[in-house]
């Protein structure tokens, strides 16, 4: 791996007014009444407390999908059972909503809890709409196999459909006292540019930002190309920037990114969320999915 601290022109530090213009004002955190709600809420509160942002809890209360459950010849007995399941889900939702309201009353930042009742498909669409009205969406890591399955599709819908960044909380990861060190997984793509834009308020407060390019394009002499323009851009936010170039040499790109992030004790990894279209739906793939499945550090992704 080649690590360089580029010689950049002195950049003016952001003024108070310019910092205000890139502050996060609304943090939307996904809650489902499960044990990991507290972890996601802790990350949301930590992010919001830096800039006095508002935390909005989005409690998605899952209801039985009657269209899927109802048999063609189920009759009155089946309808009664299904109605009973729906009522039970709503009663459970009432208890969870009360518990969340009590927890939110103890937060140190302005807050509110919003409840959505619906089937998985309904909740996906509503969550996307809610995310568009916020600055950042805090979610649990998908594809975890430990209770995340009902929300994997919701995660992808928000990533590909909301136009907002998603802050991904790994299992068991408590928030840092501050996000001081950020790794940007750089590719010259729209998705990476979107992720950097969404992370700008956090980058502006970071003491150090590392731009990592894995398997970068080579110059005519066969040397890896060093992209100083992105470093100059990030330095104007007031963070100290270095550029690292690395070759994967047969390893997974996600492994290279995580190795570098751990070496620098990164508090956050910023990267584009890439996918491919299938039946008019976007499906995560490649390095993006690998990172989500393997990262033990928080990620900020955008598409």
TrEMBL record:
InterPro entries: Universal_stress_UspA (IPR006015), UspA (IPR006016). It comes from the Bacteria. It holds the Pfam family Usp. Residues 179-302 form the UspA domain. Belongs to the universal stress protein A family. This is Universal stress protein. It comes from Microvirga thermotolerans.
């Amino acid at each position: 791996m080649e690590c360089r601290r580029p010689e950049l022109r002195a950049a003016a530090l952001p003024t108070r007014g310019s910092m205000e213009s890139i502050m996060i004002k609304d943090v939307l955190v996904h809650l489902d009444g499960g044990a990991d709600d507290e972890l996601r809420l802790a990350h949301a509160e930590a992010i919001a407390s830096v800039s006095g942002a508002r935390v909005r809890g989005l409690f998605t209360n899952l209801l039985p999908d009657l269209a899927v459950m109802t048999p063609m010849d189920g009759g009155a007995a089946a309808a009664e059972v299904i109605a009973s399941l729906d009522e039970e889900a709503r009663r459970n939702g009432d208890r969870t909503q009360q518990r969340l309201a009590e927890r939110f009353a103890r937060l140190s930042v302005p807050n509110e809890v919003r409840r959505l009742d619906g089937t998985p498909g309904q909740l996906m669409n509503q969550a996307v709409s809610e995310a568009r009205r916020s600055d950042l969406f805090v979610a649990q890591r998908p594809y975890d196999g430990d209770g995340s399955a009902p929300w994997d599709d919701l995660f992808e819908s928000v990533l590909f459909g909301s136009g907002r960044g998603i802050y991904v909380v790994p299992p068991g990861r408590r928030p840092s006292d501050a996000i001081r060190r950020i790794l940007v997984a750089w590719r010259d793509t729209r998705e990476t540019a979107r992720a950097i834009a969404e992370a700008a308020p956090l980058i502006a407060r970071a003491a150090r930002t590392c731009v990592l390019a894995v398997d970068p394009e080579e110059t005519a002499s066969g040397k890896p190309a060093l992209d100083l323009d992105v470093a100059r851009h990030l330095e104007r936010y007031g963070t100290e920037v270095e550029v690292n170039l690395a070759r994967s040499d047969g390893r997974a790109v996600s492994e290279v990114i995580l190795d570098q992030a751990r070496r620098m004790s990164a508090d956050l990894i910023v990267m584009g969320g890439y996918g491919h279209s299938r039946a008019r739906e976007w499906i995560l793939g490649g390095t993006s999915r690998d990172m989500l499945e393997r990262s033990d550090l928080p990620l900020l992704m955008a598409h």
